[in-house]
């Protein structure tokens, strides 16, 4: 039986349908990403606020990049490396400590702890703020044992050695009549301090460090600003994970505080409260100011160990009503949430040996490598905060040599190939 010849309309319709189908599929393929994006945005906006904020936070997380060969595999977890960081970076960097408005009258003091450094700031009778290592010159007991207080004579509880507000030893029971004993040789060890034009107080543990401090705070703080609250939160992550995200150099103060950066993105706090201005007070501290200039918040990441930090916060306000206290409560909650998110991030990163945003960590690595090289040249550990370096002419000469070698170590840095031979 002969096949029926196809109708002319059929011959036209089949290719037309094929073309139409192909065009439809292409249209769908083109539109699908747009539709998906719209749907996901609608879904995201329909989520409860906190969930949407968490999604935004996840988006803001740094992209994990391949591990740099220069970084040791235990960059986040090494105790030995943390010890080196204290000598190489924390001992040599200008660090924000507090605000000068905390000290009203002579004798007012505040005690602080950064890494192993226990010290206090006290207002002298001469109206000058000074910082001292909290170490009695007799047997190294703590001179002040409270976090804050006020006294014109600080008496060590152990054997009664007493110091005035300028750190001078004024009483040393049973020692004063000893031949060869000199009170003036046993004053408290002073730490170099600096107060910027906004009244923030900085300290540098390096005995012979540079005084060339450049402060980036450009907006003066109101004179009536008072501390509303100050608190610390323990955080289970390495300080390097929270701090450096910009150029890190001991000789410069151009830093970003990654913790505050993430906090801002994560919480939306500063968006809703209109906190448009942020400053880097030091490598470890970020300052935020409300747009009306009424409120200021400092967030400091204090290194505690290779796996722990303390997030120290201070909230200042020109208002003394209940509104300021209410805001502090909200700030505390946001900061707690952000710390928990960072802790979860750190758990993943530290287990994988990855270096998120490795480029931002490289300047810090460079400082550590330079100091490590210096220690190799010196044949032992170099402690910039060690007061023994300043106690005799011989030590001064050794220290000058140390400085020259330090510069040499920095100059030779680009020629270093990896960390081979460096004592981590
Ligand atoms: S340790 Fe301070 S007086 Fe003895």
Distance between the termini: 92 Å
Order of strands across the widest beta sheet? Answer: 1-10-9-4-3-2-5
H-E string: HHHEEEEEEEEEEEHHHEEEEHHH
Q: What is the radius of gyration?
A: 29 Å
| Classification by helices and strands | alpha+beta
The count of DSSP E runs of length 2 or more, i.e. the number of strands, is: 15
Q: In percent terms, what proportion of residues is strand?
A: 15-25%
Largest sheet: 7 strands, antiparallel
- Helical fraction: 25-40%
Could you say which overall geometry the principal axes of the C-alpha atoms support? elongated
Give the overall pLDDT as a whole number. Answer: 73
- Our count of helices gives 9
Ligands bound here? FE2/S2 (inorganic) cluster
Q: Which regions contain 5 or more consecutive residues with pLDDT less than 50? A: 36-68, 212-218, 244-259, 266-276, 389-395, 411-424
Overview of the structural elements:
- The protein starts with 7 loop residues before the first helix and ends in a 13-residue tail after the last helix.
- Helix content is 35%, strand content 20%.
- It contains 9 helices and 15 strands.
- The protein has a 7-stranded antiparallel β-sheet with strand order 1-10-9-4-3-2-5, with no helix packed on it. The protein has a 5-stranded antiparallel β-sheet with strand order 11-15-14-13-12. Strands 6-7-8 form a 3-stranded antiparallel β-sheet, with no helix packed on it.
- The protein is α+β, with helices and mostly antiparallel strands.
- Strand 2 and strand 3 form a beta hairpin.
- The chain is elongated.
- The longest helix has 39 residues.
- Helix 3 packs across helix 8, helix 5 packs across helix 7 and helix 8 packs across helix 9.
- Bound molecules: FE2/S2 (inorganic) cluster (FES).
- FE2/S2 (inorganic) cluster binds next to loops.
- One of its GO terms (molecular function) is oxidoreductase activity.
- It comes from Friedmanniomyces endolithicus.
- This is Rieske domain-containing protein.
- Keywords: 2Fe-2S, Iron, Iron-sulfur, Membrane, Metal-binding, Oxidoreductase, Transmembrane, Transmembrane helix.
